[in-house]
Amino acid sequence: MSRHKYKFTNKHNTTGGIVAFLLGIMAAGLMVWAVYMAYRDRGNSGTDMGLIGTLSFFVSTVGLLLGLSSFKEEDKFYLFSWIGTILCGIIWLMLCAVVVIGI
């Protein structure tokens, strides 16, 4: 008996999931960059850090929507859909919390 389990399929990862994953990485990078720059400036950052945070918010929003819509694709692998959706959702919630705390 063979110990290896082979899986022959023509399934692929969802396109929306892969894009959502890449957008989540981009949003996380923008957020980390903005936090680092604000820390470096000792909290006296200008509107450019707000612009980077807003851009990160919009990128994570688009990634979240794409990730959620990618679950509608049939007969596909959903690994990147899950990772991208969760990553974008966490970043989106964190940026919402920053805005709420700032108000």
Highlighted features:
single chain, mainly alpha, 3 helices
Draw up the topology in text.
Layout: H1 15-40, H2 47-69, H3 79-102
Helix pairs in contact: 1-2, 1-3, 2-3
Task: Summarize the structure in words.
The protein has 103 residues and is mainly alpha-helical. The chain contains three helices and no strands. Helix 1 (15-40) runs antiparallel to helix 2 (47-69), helix 1 runs parallel beside helix 3 and helix 2 (47-69) packs antiparallel against helix 3 (79-102). The termini are far apart.
Shape: elongated
Q: How many strand elements?
A: 0
Strand proportion: under 5%
Which residues form runs of ≥5 with pLDDT under 50? none
Mean pLDDT: 87
* Sheet having the most strands: none
**Terminal residue distance:** 65 Å
How helical, in percent, are the residues? over 70%
Outline of this structure?
With 103 residues, the chain is mostly helical. Helix content is 71%, strand content 0%.
